[in-house]
Amino acid sequence: MQEIISHIKSERLARVLSIQSTALKAIHDFMYENKVLQAMPIILSPITDPLSHSVYDATVEYCGQRLKLTKSMLMHKQITLMNGGIDKVYFMSPNVRLEMQETKNSGRHLIEFTQVDIEFKGASKHDFMDFIDRMIAYVIKEVIKKCSDDLAYFGRTLSVPKIPLKRYESKELKDKYGKDFERIVSMREKEPFWILDHCREFYDREDKEKRGYYHNYDLVWPEGYGEALSGGEREYEHDDIVRKMVERNMDLTPYKEYLILAKEKHIPRTVGGGLGIERMIRYLTGQKHVKDVTIFPRVPGEKIIF
Length: 306
Ligand code: ASN
What we know:
The protein is α+β, with helices and mostly antiparallel strands. It has helices at 2-9, 11-33, 74-80, 125-146, 148-154, 170-177, 181-188, 238-247, 256-263, 277-285, and strands spanning 37-38, 44-45, 59-62, 65-69, 88-96, 112-121, 167-169, 193-196, 216-221, 226-233, 270-276. α8 (238-247) packs antiparallel against α9 (256-263). The mean pLDDT is 98.
């Protein structure tokens, strides 16, 4: 109890929020200037992102319907872009992922967090990565400009990264550093960087000519802070979606309506990604754990007090 009281009353937390407010304003301003429309998030749906790692189930029963708490708004982003007047959209999306206790000390996991979930219609992965490069550089520039006192409090020196940020292929890094490549390269790099091509959820586009190559990416924070954003070009054709769901042993039943949209070709070709807010603030402030940048910590396996 004493620990949570000191945490909530700490100067550190006020400084974190000052940096966070500046960073969020920069993101919203950047989106507005680039005509990316903000839409309101939902947190209950019969379908949500299946993720590529296991978490405990988070389902509620309401009026005879089983609704999942959103792990990301992936499919909702695709569905939103069915609207002919909306080409670019983002949500400040609260996500519930009941992570296994093993992730407790990773420094990067919370069972509730927020991501800026972004999706563009008719654009390529390069267009999207270019956009994020500019957004990250802008956010860091604004934080350096407006939060010098707070950064000094944390003893944190940031510099605006040179863009385009470096882009690595995962296979090249894996050959060089083994399967822990993301962590190793994150420790070595001084600026955020991209890693392309990861085999994961059904919705990230697999190359039709070169099976086993995925048109997706992670943005990774440097200095060992790890993953910042994940995303990719999307599967939008019915048969590709079904094939990949089957390959991943997914139960297709809850996706019935989503698959009808795909079958009737309502789902457009899109690209996008989600940037974790708490992870970004951890990097900007140089904190050890994402719990240190939240008012109400939700650490996997730990008791939630408030
Ligand atoms: N939001 C991510 C994306 O757009 C997915 C995720 O968070 N799992 O690809």
